[in-house]
Amino acid sequence: MNALASKTPAPSAEPHAPWWKFPLVWMVIAGPAIVVVAGFATLWLAIRTPDPVVSEDYYRQGIEINKTLADKKLLPAQTGRNHAATPSDDVPLPKR
C-alpha cells in the first residue's frame, strides 16, 4: 500500500447540506439586508414628507422680527448683555 494513500482521510459518506441550512450564512446575509430595507424606508419617508421651502422674503421677515423685538421691553437686557461684552477700558467711570 502506498504511504500517501494511508494518510488521506476517507471521503465522508454523509452528503453536505445546502448553504441555506447553515444559520451563520443567514446571520451574514441579515446585516446588509436590514440596511437595504432601512434605506428604502428612509427614502420613502424623504419622498413622502418634503422639506418646507424657505419663503422668498426671508430677509424682510427677519428685519421685521428685529423691529418688533426692539419695540418690546427687552432693551435693558440687551444693554446689560452688550455691557458685559465691552472691554473694561471702554467702560465709563461711575458718576458721583
Notes on the structure:
The chain is mainly α and 96 residues long. It has helices at residues 3-7, 23-48, 58-71, 75-84. The longest helix is centred in the middle third of the chain and has 26 residues, at 23-48.
Profile the largest sheet.
none
Total DSSP helices: 4
Radius of gyration: 38 Å
| Beta-strand segment tally | 0
Approximate shape: elongated
Strand content: under 5%
Helical percentage: 55-70%
Let me know the average pLDDT: 76
Instruction: Report, as a whole number of angstroms, the end-to-end distance.
Output: 120 Å
List its traits:
96 residues, mainly alpha, 57% helix
Short structural description:
With 96 residues, the protein is mainly alpha-helical. The protein is built from four helices and no strands.
List the helices and strands and how they pair.
Elements: H1 3-7, H2 23-48, H3 58-71, H4 75-84
